[in-house]
Amino acid sequence: MSGTLEEKLEACAAAGFDGVELFEQDLVVCALSPAQVRERAERLGLRLDLYQPFPDLEGVGETAFETNLDRLEAKLALMDELGIDTLLVCSNAGEAPVADDAVFASQLRRAGDLAAAHGKRIAYEALAWGTHVSTYRHSWELVRAADHPAVGVCLDSFHILSRGDDPSGIEDIPGERIFFVQLADGRPQGMEVLAWSRHHRVFPGEGAFDLVDFTVRLLRTGYRGPLSLEVFNDAFRQADPRITAVDAARSLRWLQQRARADVRLDPELRALLSGLEAIEPVEALDHVELVTDRPDALAAVLAGLGFALVGRHPRSSQLLFRGPGESAGAGARTATEAGSGTGTAAEPGVPAETRPSKTPPGETPPGEARIVVSPRADAGTRIASVAVVVADAERAQRRARELGAAPTPRANGGTGGLPGVWAGSRRLAFVDPGLAGWTRGFGAAEDSAARLGCGPSARAGFDHVGFAESRDAFEATALLLESALLLERAAPQDVATLRGLVTAQALESPRRGTRWVLDLLPPALGSAAFPDRLALRVPDALAAARAARDAGVEPLAIPANYYADLAARFGLSEAVLGRWRELGILYVRDAGGELLHFCTPTMGGLAFDVLERVGDYAGWGGADAAVRLAAQWAGERDGARPGAQNG
């Protein structure tokens, strides 16, 4: 965390932590005396649970070890002033000329005698890069050999799992000999573990480690001490400590919730883990709110994409648009229907894998898409709020607040009265059956669906929402959405764009009723330069593209080189590629199916992505994201405008 020791303590207390570890460097640079630090923590309701680190104790000759004991004596006296009873001693990672387990155990025993004289304990931790001791099994062997009541082990999930160690051996350690536990997650970085550990740890749930299994195994030992977070991360060191502390607390709540599910048949262990308000996975969006300083231009784009203006709210001035929706039946085109119309399934030259568009078994079909437009001067155009359908909106909000999300203020009129929380820079709102009447305040529109150019071919439901987050909010927003809505993470995907490497994290509900794609921006690229994406699912992408073009919404122009590449990779005919090129159709294929989609140029920070899923395609179009972004940025540079014919 960034900030002074005082700021860190205040942030942890405000986030709901019970205690903290005291890192030596934080104390060394602090103007408060040890007694004042102790008093400050007590006033904030925080325990000081651990002092760390004490390095390079063991594995040295007798003269050097006597010096180490003098150093240890000084730190134990300091801990007396601080009121801390446990010291973290990490395995020697420096020059350790002695490589003898018997000597290591003897030195730990002598250090234990000194600690016991002060009423303290030593938690011995194996660093993953330790010179002689680098595994938790080895550290436990030495602690057991030392056979001293003041010497136990510290288990650090990062040091264990980053090496690929099997954590099952944790259950062989008696819980009373585990003096402390530190948790951190991680994603493989392709670097040495030391650099990975010191710069790229993340909170539980934000990486690839199985911390649920780790935690359950730990609890089975009988360990009942603190679950602490030790996360070294360059982004966290630069972020607001109050935000980081909230994110950290959320990750522990996420971990407890997942572990509770894992031990649901063990009531004793389950009782040890805090639960959250229970909800079902969120499988539907109620509406998406867009803010814009160009409401007329945005309305024209929506009309071209098949949306009807329902009306304007008299208090909020919000506009409500409704798409006819895509039912399971409407999306299930037969091959005959596709062949007689504009569908892709019967187009000459389309790969044999292309099948009629339909909702795969077990997947929730997209429902009616409703979009609220909120005129706001100087706002640009972007996604401001996403409302999800839940059984109990107040309960869903309480769950999100238990995860550390801040509530959004309520206002009279339009969507302002819906309960919600902040998810990064956007509002997450909740709609239950009792709140479904929020649309009644919108008066009848003068323009009918027919006048707006809406036709049967323009049926559209929400497929996914995509938006960018800064580095200090990306993981926190992803974890909040995952935890609050019970979503599942896909593997993150790196997209090499013209403006830097973008990491995309997709999340989806178990039945794929809702999908979210968060983009982690490179440091040099601000979110204002990266468009939000609202993806609409239609039964026929080509028909929707033609209807949009006929209504004055020109699809995004895609470079000819892209289609030449498609021809080379998939053997597509020139007739098919000519139609796709004309309509700006993008194409992705995976083992499950295919995706055909077209995009609009960006308008002040927002672009629409209109897509047709064929077969069991489960992605979001990440394979051609770089092409889409390059075309959108080129359109911005060349002055392309959605809602107007170009050329």
Task: Describe the protein in words.
The protein is an alpha/beta fold. The model is unreliable at 326-356, 445-458 and 643-647 (pLDDT under 50). A hairpin with a 2-residue loop joins β17 and β18. The strands form three sheets. Strands 15, 16, 17, 18, 19, 20, 21, 22 and 23 form a nine-stranded mixed β-sheet that branches. The protein has a seven-stranded parallel β-sheet with strand order 1-2-3-4-5-6-7. It has a seven-stranded mixed β-sheet with strand order 9-10-11-8-12-14-13, with helices on one face. 50% of the residues are buried. α3 (34-43) packs across α4 and α9 (211-220) crosses α11 (241-262). The chain contains 21 helices and 23 strands. The longest helix has 22 residues, at 241-262. It is 34% helix and 21% strand.
